[in-house]
Amino acid sequence: MLTRNLPSVAVIADAHFHDTAADFGFPGIEIDGQRITMRSWSDTRQSTRVFNESADALHAALDEVQRRGIRHVVLLGDYTDDGQRATTGMLKSILQRHSDKYGTGFYALPGNHDIFGPRGRHHIKEFLAEDGRGLSVSSDTRLAGERVVINGGMYCEGYPAGLSPMAAFGYFRHPDYLHWETPFGESDAPEDRLYDVCSPDGRNVYRLMDASYLVEPEAGLWLLMIDANIFEPHDGIFEAGEEAAFTDSTSGGWNALLRSKPFIIDWIADVSRRAQALGKTLLAFSHYPALDPFDGATRAEGALFGETNGVRRTPRKAVEDALLQAGLAVHFSGHLHVEGVTRREAADRSLTNIAVPSLVAFPPAFKVVHPSQDAIAIETVEMSALPVSGPISAGYARETELAGEGMDPAFTAGNYGAFLRCHKRALVRHRYFLKEWPANIVAAIQDRTVAEVLGSFSRKPGPPADAVLSAALPMLDLIADWYCLRQGAALALPHIEPERLVLYRALAERFGHEPEDHDGTLEGFLGIFFGALGLFLDRAERGSRRITVDLAPRHELLAV
């Protein structure tokens, strides 16, 4: 049988677009004659993503898509900063201009930052005002105050209103599609795409819209777009569908989908059978991972920090079993801003989850899928070489100077990748140390070098790890690189100095051990920490910027 080549598909996850020219009812900060609607560094360094850099990163990714002649782009959820009306409207304009000029088809999926429940929710965000000080903008009139601007453009819509600005990008039928359907049939009307959910106590029952769809943009290529953005009702007494009535979808994902939308699994099985019978190449997408993108390393994270976001968002074994039974072969996910490939097998079936990095977190990248009838090649396009914005860096510097703080190395980073690595370091100090790490461990290590910390160990270094006793590397830098390797896998390696990688391997081999409940001591904690470092290094060294997945039964995964 002849192999039929199909059009390439770009997959952009977690773009988190923020419009630095947005009008939220205040003039913004002026830098070098330019007015910027700029989020504060104090907020940025506490967030797992950056804000002000997102527009440049998205435009650069779309330019690369156009340069490569790619006609189809999947937006894998969290395409907006936080679903704000004004932000979503501007994103629509950007995508539509690109589509009109180059004929690009966009296919969107909702993420937890794009849409909330049936009625939406208010937001409040901090920006820099003209004087360089922080000023908040909210859609909630109850929060009005001296340094709080009220603006309706900050509101995040719910289903189906939040889909309307993005209606032309897959959510609804388009005459150019060769095939389009939902789990409920061929109608694209919101009222024909409803399902019932109720609270555990049975008192709160709602009919919510599901935004999943299957589209065939070109002959032989099926894109299965799965809405795993799940809102489960709480017990208690609420008005009709306000924010407090539902769990946040952030930690739900596929685990919650099995509870609330089991009909999706039946639909996946049906689509998979039809795709095989009709000779279609089926690629599946959702915002949330279907398999653990860290491939088991979250055990160490749980032992160290308890139930972190990463632990809560890990899919259970039941998800793997259901999708294998349904015959799904390849699934692309975002959400965790991680690079990773995870594979599971059962009988004659195999499932591969391709985790796609974010454009606004280390490492910044997107994927390009080159499908054929019997295999797909997956290429990683990294965006680290992009320049950083001088005016935005100057704004950060002005903010920190007014606050009486020192300049962060991020403000003088040579490129976008270096900026994001510096951001990771700031994130460790201003978020992870405060919210996740045990206070006694932080006090023992945060201002010390690796040599100073390990010099107090009862188990002393030995060759080749004895070099650490003269290492002046700050523990903070090692920990930041730990998170970079956790998130970036193979993509992180070129960004970390070779001598550091040698040191990290030595530390993992000398001091690391399997995840277990540590005894509360620094040595016990770091033993698990270094054990996880070894797992991250193993995963990084096994990785590749380009892989091939055989779509035949019990398909194989090959690094190229």
Structure description:
- By secondary structure, this protein is α/β, with parallel strands linked by helices.
- It has 2 domains: 9-16 and 51-121 and 156-382, Purple Acid Phosphatase, chain A, domain 2 (4-Layer Sandwich); 437-542, no CATH class.
- 32% of the residues lie in helices and 18% in strands.
- The chain has helices at residues 41-44, 54-67, 85-102, 167-171, 253-260, 262-278, 298-305, 309-312, 317-326, 390-402, 416-435, 439-445, 450-454, 475-488, 498-511, 522-542, and strands spanning 9-12, 29-31, 34-36, 72-75, 105-108, 124-128, 134-138, 148-150, 179-181, 194-198, 205-209, 213-218, 221-225, 281-285, 330-333, 340-346, 349-355, 365-371, 375-382, 546-550, 557-559.
- The strands form 5 sheets. Strands 5-4-1-18-19-20-21 form a 7-stranded mixed β-sheet.
- Helix 7 runs antiparallel to helix 16 (522-542) and helix 11 packs across helix 14.
- The two termini are 24 Å apart.
- The relative contact order is 0.12.
Radius of gyration: 24 Å
Q: For the record, give the distance between the C-alpha atoms at the N and C termini, rounded to a whole number.
A: 24 Å
Low-confidence runs (pLDDT<50, min 5 residues)? none
Summarize model confidence as the mean pLDDT.
92
The number of helical segments is 16
What is the CATH topology assignment of the largest domain? Purple Acid Phosphatase, chain A, domain 2
Q: State the shape.
A: globular
Structural class: alpha/beta
The number of domains: 2
Helix content: 25-40%
Please identify which CATH superfamily of the largest domain we are dealing with: Metallo-dependent phosphatases
The overall strand count is 21
Biggest sheet features: 7 strands, mixed
Q: What would you say the CATH architecture of the largest domain is? A: 4-Layer Sandwich
The level 1 CATH classification of the largest domain is Alpha Beta
